[in-house]
Amino acid sequence: MASLAPANGIHVGGRWEAGELGTYDVDDPADKAVLAAVANAGAAQATAAVDAAEAAAAEWAATSPRRRSEILHRVFELMHRDADDLAALICAENGKSATDARAEVGYAAEFFRWFAEEAVRIDGSYGSAPAGGVRTVVTRRPVGIAALVTPWNFPAAMATRKIAPALAAGCTVVLKPAAETPLTALAVARLLAEAGVPAGVVNVVPTTEPEEVVGTWLADPRVRKVSFTGSTGVGRHLLRQAADRVLNASMELGGNAPFIVTEDADVAAAVEGAMIAKFRGGGQACTAANRLYVHADVAEEFTRLLAERVNALVVGRGADASTQIGPLINERAVHRVAGLVDDAVAGGARVVAQAELPADLSGYFFAPTVLADVVPDARVVQEEIFAPVAPIVTWTDEAELLALVNESEMGLAGYLYSGDLKRALQLAERIDSGMIGINRGLVSDPAAPFGGFKQSGLGREGAHEGIEEYQETQYFSVDWS
Ligand code: NAD
């Protein structure tokens, strides 16, 4: 990591500070080795971050949209300049493969390009009231200081998907990255400063005490917005706190994506799609295919082809060039998924594929697995797996399929493979998910509105909608008599 040594301080008001609570160790999940001792913030530093965001707010909001846009464009360029180093940091602290980490950096950077373009397209309207005698002028203002809270599974992209629209809208932010993966967010903070983002506009506060830091922010009357990505349980908890102050809230929460294969689908293409939808990032994506519903007519072929692919997956350290699947994030995740697989097998499921685990790995590895003959109410189908395990359920009746798909309280992503596009769209319109890949295993796109139905969240990130999450609408009623 020659040009981008990991930053490990609290980034507040443009300064790098030691932690109020000392330091904590960030580990490499591939071998549990300590990567860095990172500054650990407490409540006082959380407040100092809001002080810095407040001090910078008026000037940033008054900065011309063109200037904000140019700075965001510059961040995009710098992320590409340092893409190798950023990807290496992601590999190290998250564990994902170098290919997945590189793809994440590209995706993460793209939010700066997209929102650089949106920054200069903030519009309003001017109209005449129907009764006459009044003109209405509608305008959009930055919502104010935004508290951003992000998970470990996409250490760069989950942060940039919030920072870029917030800055484009003219907001200043305080960001708490996941304790497991602060290094990437801190590296992005350094690039933001290099690109010309003024001190205090983006403050990054790593901590092992999320309740203390985020709780401090949500109770602070100067904070006007919370945007959270993470589990539904923590999202619900933050929403309750946000309710006390009627805080503007965006929530990107858990998923339980169905992956549907119809009897007329191109089975080989569906298997390719499943490899991406299920195994990208080792299955640790909120959009990961969680339950594979395959029509009985093609189930044998689909299962055989998927098993061949999964048996051949190379598991290892993310940084090794040959690695396709890295470790899980921690020990708890390994125990959890082992329990889900055991439960499925006890309920009659068959393990039809399991990739080999290299013997010399001491990290949090779990072998990519395919399960066939899984019953629809197995825990592995009902719960978010967040690991490289693909449970296959067969179906024959479309109405029954849709009932199974929609009984979940989650509704983030879904995938549908069919040879008939009209049928696919008709089915997709009846699936209660915010995003559906049709003959594609990937839905994430900075130009598209990312978000879920039901308990998968509130609001959208990316697209035109993404910037609106950081704006207040204001209108002036002007006497025109
Ligand atoms: P998590 O909810 O445990 O943690 C997410 C963030 O919340 C972390 O920064 C964590 O430190 C913080 N946090 C935890 N407890 C908190 C508390 N009491 N108060 C304030 N902050 C707190 O989730 P995770 O394990 O990091 O990520 C996995 C989950 O995130 C999965 O459910 C996944 O589906 C979801 N996710 C959703 C999206 C999406 O866009 N919908 C994207 C990625 C991940």
Description:
- The structure is a single chain.
- With 481 residues, the protein is α/β, with parallel strands linked by helices.
- The protein has helices at residues 43-62, 65-81, 83-94, 98-119, 157-169, 182-195, 210-219, 232-244, 267-279, 296-311, 331-346, 379-382, 398-406, 421-428, 463-468, and strands at 10-12, 15-17, 23-27, 34-39, 125-128, 134-142, 145-149, 173-176, 202-204, 223-229, 248-252, 257-261, 289-295, 350-354, 369-372, 389-395, 410-411, 413-417, 435-438, 453-454, 457-458, 471-479.
- 54% of the residues are buried.
- It folds into 2 domains: 2-253 and 456-477, Aldehyde Dehydrogenase, Chain A, domain 1 (3-Layer(aba) Sandwich); 257-445, Aldehyde Dehydrogenase, Chain A, domain 2 (3-Layer(aba) Sandwich), CATH 3.40.309.
- α1 packs across α7, α2 (65-81) packs antiparallel against α4 (98-119) and α2 (65-81) runs antiparallel to α5.
- The model is unreliable at 1-5 (pLDDT under 50).
- The N and C termini lie far apart (67 Å).
- Nicotinamide-adenine-dinucleotide binds next to α7 and α8.
Q: What is the CATH topology classification name of the largest domain? A: Aldehyde Dehydrogenase, Chain A, domain 1
Which radius of gyration do the C-alpha atoms yield? 23 Å
The second-level CATH architecture of the largest domain is 3-Layer(aba) Sandwich
Overall CATH class of the largest domain: Alpha Beta
Strand tally, please? 22
Shape: globular
Class based on secondary structure composition and strand pairing: alpha/beta
Work out the strand percent: 15-25%
CATH superfamily of the largest domain: Aldehyde Dehydrogenase, Chain A, domain 1
The biggest sheet amounts to:
7 strands, mixed
Low-pLDDT stretches: 1-5
Q: Strand order within the widest sheet?
A: 14-15-16-13-12-18-19
Helix content bin: 40-55%
Pfam family, one: Aldedh
InterPro entries: Ald_DH/histidinol_DH, Ald_DH_C, Ald_DH_CS_GLU, Ald_DH_N, Aldehyde_DH_dom, Aldehyde_DH_Superfamily
Family: Belongs to the aldehyde dehydrogenase family.
Protein name: NAD-dependent succinate-semialdehyde dehydrogenase
